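Before a colleague's protein record goes any further, I have to sign it off. What it holds is a sequence and that sequence's fold in C-alpha cell form. My question to you is simply how this chain folds and whether the C-alpha cells agree. Thanks in advance; the entry in question is below:
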Amino acid sequence: MKKNKRTLKERLQYEFDNIMSRGTVALIGLLMGITIIVVGIAGLAAVLSGKDGSYAKMVWVSLMHTLDPGTLAGNETDNLVFIAILSVMTLYGILVTSVLIGIITTGFEEKLKRLRKGTSRVLEEGHTVILGFNDNVYTLLNELIEANSNHKNGCIVVAGVQEKEFMEEEIAAHIKDFKTTRVICRSGPLTQAHILERCAVDRSRSVIINLYDDAETIKVILSLAAFLKGKDLYREDLYITAAVTSEQNVEAARIAGEGRAEIIYVSDAVSRIIAHTCRQPGLSNVLIELFDYDGDELYFEKIPQLYGRTLKELLNLFPKAVVFGIRREDGPHMNPPMDTVLREGDEVILLEEDDGSFTLGAQEAAVEEDLIVAEGEGRALLPETLLILGVNSMLPLILAEYDCYVARGSVVKIVAEQRMELDEASYRNIIIQWKESEGVDPALLEELLADGADDVLILSSDGLEPEVSDARTLLQLIFLRNISEKGHKHFTITSEMKKSDNQRLAAQIRVEDLVIGSNIVNLIMTQVAENRELQALFEDILDEEGSELYMKPAGDYVRTGVPVNFYTVTESASRKGEIAVGYKQVRDGKTSIVTNPLKSERVVYEPEDYLIVIAED
C-alpha cells in the first residue's frame, strides 16, 4: 500500500500555520526573516545591474530603502535598473511597515483582552474566595467588606463562569463603598484546577461556594478537595462554607468536604426563622442583627480573670456586651443553667461591637430591686390562628417547627391552588384547614380574615420566577394592608421574598417582617466563613432544642411607665433562667429593635413593649 506523499505546498502551508499559531513574536520573526531574504536578493540584483559598490553596500542600501521609503528621492537616476530595484524595495518597505504595525497592534489588543479576562494568578494571601457569581454575591461581598473594615488591604476573589468585565461592572453598580477591601474577579469553569489555582485557593483563608444547585455545589466541593490534596495543601485552617437546599444532600456535601466543609441546610434554617417570626413580629430583624456585620456580632472570648464565676454573675459584669452562654470543648452552650461555673479553658459567648471590644464593669451593677416584677406563674398559652397564603417545599418544615411552640388547638388555614401532602397526624398542637384558590383573591382574603387571624404568612412559590413570585407577594401585601385598615383588624404579617431588591418596595406597605431566605442564609455563610465555630452556635439559636430567642412582654420583667436601666432588666430575666438581649418598642406606628443596649441607660417601657430574651420556652 502506497503512502500518501506530502507535497511541498502542503509542507510549507503546515509550517506556516504552525508559525502563525505561535503568537506575535513568531510573526515578527517570520516577517524579519522574509525581509532579510528579500534585501539579500535586492542587493544581489543591484550588483548584477552594474551599480558601483560591493554586495554588502548594496544590501545596506536596499535595507535602508525598505526601512525608510523617503530615501528614494535622493538617489541618482543614471542607472534605471538600480532605480527600479530600489523602488520595489521602497514599496516592499511600505508593505512590511503596515504589516508590522498590524501585527503589533493585534498582539497588544490580544494581550489586553487576556488581561481583562483575568487569566493571571492572584498573588494575595489570607483572602476570601467566593466561587459562583449570582444575585447572592452582593450580600456576601457587603458583609465581608464590613468584616474587613477594621483591617488594611482586605481582599476578596470572586470567580464565576461569566466574563470578568461583566462581573466587575455588576459589582461596581451594586456596591458603592469598598472601604479597605479590594475585590478581584476571575472567570472560568469553577471545577477546573487551573481556575482554582488562578484564584490562589491554596493561600486563601476560606472559600465560600455561592451556587443555587446542590449537585453543582457538591461537585465544586469535590474539586476543591482534589485540588488541595493533589498539591498537598489541605491545611487545617483552610475550610469551605456552602449551602444546600435538600436535606438528603447535606451529608453528601459533608462527605465530599472530608471534614473541611461547613454545610448550611438552607430550607431548615429559613423554615425555622419563618416559623418563629410569624408568631413574634420583629424577630427576623433581631436575627439579622445577630447574623450580619453591621452593628454587634457574636464572638468567643477567653477571659481568665472570670474563671470560677457562675453564669448569673457574668451577666451584669459587661456594661456594653450581652453574655449568650459558654463555649466548652464539646461546643457552645447557649443559656445554660444560671449556676454553671466558667472553668479554665472555657470561653464566654459575647454579643459585642467587635472582637475583644468588651470592658468589665469597674463597680457593682446598679440593680433597682423595687422595679423588678416578682416572678409569677406566667401567662397561659392560648390557641392561635395562622393564615398561610401559598405553599412551597418548606411548608412541612415550617409547620413542624410552628407545632412545637403553639398551644393545643391552634388552627393553621392554608390557601393554595392545590393541597400539598402533609403528615397531619404527626402534629400535636395544630389543626390544618385547606382552602383551594387560584391566584390572589381579595374577596377570599377578606372572608378568611373575618373569622379572625392572629398572624398571616405569605410564602413564595417554588414554580415561579423570583420577580414574578415577589410581584404576587407585593399584591397580596397591599390587599392585606387594605383589609387591616378598612376593617380595623389587627394581625401581624410575615412575608417571604426571594429578592432583597424588592424589600424596599414591601417596606412601603409597613409589613412587620420580611424574611428573605437567601439573604439570611448569606449572612450566616459570611459569619461562618470568618469563624467556622459559629456554625454550631447558629444551629443552637435556630433549633427547637434547648433555648431560643423569644419576645416577651416587658411588663413581665420590670415595671412599665418608669425609667429603668438594663442591669435591672438583666437581673429580672436571670431570675427566670433567661438572658435579656434587648428590647422592642413601638412608637407612633414605628417599630424599633435594640440589641445589646448600654446597660446603664435608663429606658421607659410601655405595656405594649417587648423584651428580647434567650429562654427555653
